Prior knowledge:
The protein is of the alpha+beta class.
Amino acid sequence: MFTTSMKSFTIRVLVVLSTVFIFQLADAQQWCGTMENVYRKMQQDPAVQLRYQNLLDTLSEQYMNAPARSTNAVTDIIYIPVVFHIIHNGKAVGTGENISDAQIQTQIDAMNLHYNFLDPNIANVPAPFQSAVANCHIKFCLAKFDPQGNPTTGIERLQFSQATWNTQDDIDNTLKPATIWDHTKYLNIWSVKMGGDLTSQGILAYATLPYIANATDDGVVARSNVIGTINTIAGYQLGKTITHEVGHWLGLLHTWGLGPGCGDQGDYIADTPDEDDAAYGCPTFPYISCPLTTPNGAMFMNYMDYTYDQCSSMFTNGQNDRMHFVLDGSRSAIKTAANTACFYNLDAAVASLDFPSDTICSLNFKPIVTIRNEGVIAITSGKLYFQIDGDVVQIFNWNGSIPSQGEMQITLPEQITIGGVHTLDVTFGNVNGQAADNYSGNDSKSVAFFVYDGGTAASLPLTEGFEGGIFPPTNWQVQNPNNDATWIKNSAFSGYGQSTACMSIDNFSYGINPNKKKDAIVTDAYDFTTVTYPELKFDVAYAQYSATRYDSLNLYYSFDCGSNWTKIWNQKGGELATAPDQTVMFTPSASQWKTVSVPLLNMAGQNKVTFKFENVTGWGNALYIDNINIANNPSLSVAETKREEVKIYPNPASDLVAIRIPANHPFNRAEVLNSLGEVVYAASMNDNALIFSVKNFPSGLYFVRMVGENKSQTEKFLVTQ
């Protein structure tokens, strides 16, 4: 641990070095000018040296006194109002440095992923660092009101006569003081065209550190082409340059600390490993930077390192603690500013029209609408005004509770249409009994959709043992695009149990390799509106020819009578097999069957669901299916009171899956079950993050069952390989 005198000496050395500092960049396109700006200001003003020393004292004390913990105790979202100052010299909006509103919005959206455990790359965090990944619970919003209380978009376009800004002095002493909004209430971000020294140094952006910045220069400055996720430069097209700089603004240092070297104080955060110097590009894990102190290598995927955007994906729990320490300290005023700068007091939004959204195969349907509370106070009532094709406006009175920044799906009464193209218009009004909420721009949405008459759905339960005289069963279809071997009724061989028949497909008797030909049997459409816990079961028997000659069985469902299919279960080869490999035609004995159970909880309430059993032949052996049943299974219900907020990401997944639940959750273990109900992975759930590999999981639907002493909860996710 550094002493104060040691840090004072360090500061004096840094001030001297900053006069001769030569930028030797491994990648000239990725450079943060934050620390260079600090050193420059210390050289110009002794008072800044003192403030910098006080900052290091503060970070050191927080580092020493921060509780040792591996989980994030913060659960309430902190909103930070943002204003973008777009500096240009007369170019049209969307041209050059006068970037578009859409580009700015993509930056806000990107930060809200990065600071909330939602980065699509988060599953690529190496196993040794998985437990350190933080959900910072920090969100950013474009300001809706300026410092004088006037409505704004949070985007200020300012024309200056000069085309480029060549030095940090030029920006900090001229541009910022003339344009800055109250830095205690807004995160100020300037978009500029950089030139001169800033270009030769390779600086893309820079920020001010807390405790050092003053009222005239506090915020982030960036080149226009590293803001957002469109119209950006290669390597920095995911908005992470600004995420990095905002990290500085919230008190984070670079992961390697104040300068090159192993074994130093680093960034004053315990769970960012020792790192000699910045990492560039996309290193391969492990990236050994300080071999004596970090056997797992540097945390190059940290947002506060210098790697390309596609290779960075995390803040740590310690960095999260640091940022919230700053938000409770020198930047505490901004936490309450959101209520007056970011949000209207009462603001209900029609976030989406979830159903119908494209094509439906029923003349009857129930629209599903998502209402989001964009305001400060809770929404407890409202009226949904909706109409089909501009016809009579219908009114649905709703009562409930949607907390600030929360959302809820609402199902509207059943509608009856005719075939063809239609439009649905929905408006949410009379919020909390008020004639109008504070913002009308998000109250309504419309959607066009196509309807055709897919016939009447069959009622449940379904019991199909293939005992009848007709095959395929009534309203079922066999799909045999190659007019060769396909699904048949097999009466020569008894089905499973007491059944006298089953259906089968011969993958054995091809003369040459059929090379993954697909044959399917498609069921009738079934009405799920009367079942709460639907489950599909079927019996299967199979033997592969060999480890290299085997077949696959896929199960899909469709809500639109087969226009689109979603895979929910898959097995192939040895995992599908119920008997040893056989080089003769396989006929199963009574003991060579297994029952597959596939929960269908997401289909409850749907009025038409169709299923498809698809055989993909690999020149293996015969496959048999019997006793296809769909029924209500109350045992699938989860005994719970209030559901915990659980995030599973990515979903669908093919490599790693990350599960995040709030701190102080009631669960002590988690189990991952396949569609057969078999536990394929289990782990303790003492922390609030769990990351595991699904590389070897077959494609299909999986369930995460979290269990505690008095509570359990089940979530689902898809694996697609």
